[in-house]
Design goal:
One of its GO terms (molecular function) is rRNA (cytosine-2'-O-)-methyltransferase activity. With about 230 residues, the protein is of the alpha/beta class. The chain has 8 helices and 10 strands. The protein has helices at about 25-35, 40-50, 65-80, 100-110, 120-130, 145-155, 170-180, 205-215; strands at about 10, 35-40, 60, 85, 110-115, 135-140, 160-165, 185-190, 200-205, 220-225.
Length: about 230
């Protein structure tokens, strides 16, 4: 592994997951100072930069092109170009692009800084009322292949479990959780964190399945499941 250089070349910059006031002063300064912003969606990030009054060159960097783009970006970083990576919302690399470039930079000794900032699972975990001493972040479950295997492997997990889920799969996921973890297992379901219609519902998996069977389901979800007692 190469020795890291002294000067930072790549900055991982968290962006608001809802409320635009969640951007930090340091994040704004870095976005102004770098040469280019690597964005998951340049249209989404362009709106944020425009809101902040920042005119900056952007480069599209997402899950579908990051394998091909990493080597080229590393070469540019090694030549001294300063880059900031942002996702559409939250911290890059957490269920978003970023891991491949970070790994390559570590291997090449390119100095990286990750700014602290918004991440959806932290407020959802803290608001759940479940143990925060030990927890496991599972992110998005496999959609098809390996889904049941992953769930069965978590059936006896004693730590609090955190999952991300899209609105059109929330009910199905809660039903599968009920089947694997048991109807009486406690769960906390948060949606639209830091946005106008933020909501958190707590109860047993049986209760949450009944609630979401009739409830309109909109927004991005974080599901926090109490560990096996």
């Amino acid at each position: 592994m190469a020795e890291p250089v002294e000067e930072t070349s790549l900055y991982l910059v968290p962006t608001p997951i809802g409320n635009l006031e969640d951007i930090t002063l340091r994040a704004i300064r870095i976005l102004k100072e770098v040469d280019i912003v690597l964005a998951e969606d340049t249209r989404t990030s362009g709106k944020l930069l425009n809101h902040l009054g920042i005119d900056k060159r952007m480069h599209s960097h997402h899950l579908h092109n990051e394998h091909k783009a990493v080597a080229h970006l590393v070469e540019r970083l090694k030549k001294g170009e300063k880059m900031a990576m942002v996702s559409d919302a939250g911290t890059p690399g957490i269920s978003d692009p970023g891991f491949l470039l970070v790994r390559a930079c570590v291997q090449e000794g390119i100095k990286i800084e990750c700014l602290p900032g918004p991440t959806a699972f932290v407020p959802a975990l803290v608001k759940s009322g479940f143990s925060t001493d030990r927890f496991t972040f599972e992110g998005f479950l496999p959609i098809k292949k390996g889904r049941q295997t992953r769930l069965q492997s978590l059936a006896q997990e004693e730590r609090t479990m955190i999952f991300y889920e899209s609105p059109h799969r929330v009910l199905k996921t809660l039903e599968q959780f009920k089947e694997v973890f048991g109807a009486e297992r406690m769960v906390s379901v948060s949606r639209e964190i830091s946005k106008m219609f933020e909501e958190t519902l707590n109860g047993t998996l049986e209760e949450m399945v009944q609630t979401f069977t009739t409830k309109a389901i909109k927004g991005e979800f974080v599901i926090v499941v109490q560990g096996n007692k």
